[in-house]
Write a structure and sequence with these properties.
By secondary structure, the protein is of the alpha/beta class. The chain has 10 helices and 7 strands. The strands form 2 sheets. A 5-stranded parallel β-sheet has the order 3-4-2-1-7, sandwiched between helices. A two-stranded antiparallel ribbon has the order 5-6. The chain is globular and about 50 Å long. It starts with a strand and ends with a helix. The site of aspartic acid has 12 residues, from loops.
């Protein structure tokens, strides 16, 4: 059993989504838990929309979300033979987001809790797309809502995972699905409290989600897929000549 995590840069457009599906397929028939971030820049756009709503500009926030979903609708149309179900799900998500943003705009108040409920939609978009794509390609694939397994406390925006609870919930809801050849797709970054409120682990938290699920599943490997070969000495978009680091201690990696 392995965990494969794909980040936003791996989910930038239809071609990248196909690559992700190819990489997941290449590990057939190993049971795979696929953990996904939001599509590139989606989370930033959702934060921007939330901040805009807080100023009272509900229309502006709605328009920003509409633009974001236009990209989602286009990607679904390009990627899927039968995109209808995903398109309908996206429409529901967009409607939910509109409602949340209108609420923020009406009150001109944005709590960390509301922000989490808003920004978590990015990961739900990518899991909907990848699940359907893998299904169309003939894989035995199930989407598991991260909120069913990734239990956290209520420190919204930077929630602390409860590893014992996660272990138990994974054993109950996720582990049994991962039979020979099966794939489970889960949102990274997102979790929920005991009471069912949506939380997030903090920016860039999807890698952490993958590690937590890997631990709870006793996976043999947690693979973090990204658009560079290994961990580089610097961000190659900023520093020319950045090169891969051959070995890295756990502490260095955490840093
Ligand atoms: N989508 C979230 C972010 O942009 C989580 C992640 O990418 O790991 O921070
Ligand atoms: Mg990341």
């Amino acid at each position: 059993m392995i965990v494969m995590k794909f980040g936003g840069s791996s989910l930038a457009d239809a071609a990248r989504f196909r690559q992700v599906a190819d990489l997941v397929a290449a590990n057939d028939p190993t049971p795979r838990c696929v953990v996904l971030s939001a599509m590139g820049r989606t989370t930033d756009a959702l934060f921007d929309a939330a901040r805009r709503a807080e100023t009272g500009d509900g229309d502006g926030a709605s328009a920003a979300v509409a633009e974001l979903f236009a990209r989602g609708y286009a990607t679904a149309g390009e990627l899927l033979q039968e995109p209808e179900a995903v398109l309908a799900e996206f429409a529901r998500m967009q409607h939910d987001l509109d409602t949340l943003l209108r609420g923020v705009a009406l009150l001109r108040e944005r709590t960390a809790r509301t922000t989490d409920a808003i920004v978590a939609h990015g990961e739900r978009m990518s899991t909907a797309l990848v699940t359907e794509l893998l299904r169309e390609r003939g894989h035995a694939v199930t989407h598991v809502d991260a909120r069913r397994v990734l239990r956290t406390d209520d420190r919204f925006g930077a929630a602390n995972p409860s590893r014992p609870a996660i272990r138990e919930l994974v054993a109950q809801h996720l582990r049994p699905l991962l039979v020979h050849g099966a794939i489970v797709v889960v949102e990274g970054y997102v979790g929920s409290t005991d009471a069912g409120a949506t939380t997030t682990l903090g920016r860039g938290g999807s890698d952490w989600s993958a590690a937590l699920l890997g631990e709870a599943l006793a996976a043999t490997e947690v693979q973090i897929w990204t658009d560079v070969e290994g961990v580089l000495t610097a961000d190659p978009r900023v520093v020319a000549g950045a090169r891969p680091i051959a070995t890295l201690s756990a502490n260095e990696a955490a840093e």
